[in-house]
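dude i think i finally got it to work??
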Amino acid sequence: MHIGVCKFYLRIPESRSLKAKRRVIKSLIARLKNRFNVAVAEVEALDAHQSAVLAAVSVSNDAAHLNGLLARVVTFIETHPDAELVDYETEFFF
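look at this
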């Protein structure tokens, strides 16, 4: 069993309130869950208006498949129009 965790550091430049941030983050989380079937949650910077930290997790029996899946998630987030990907880190547990 292989577990992959990817943590995304996002900047939301158009957000002026927590309500505006929540709209962007909820939309992004729903799209990631529907498209890639990964578990996603906001894990840090909960009170910051223009930044967010999301974590995506998946489990697989194939490490190569897991690595490819998380790479596609990163690419998807990079193309999201409302959030800017500042940095990300990926960890694998075997």
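The CA atoms of residues 33 and 76 lie 12 Å apart.
im so relieved honestly
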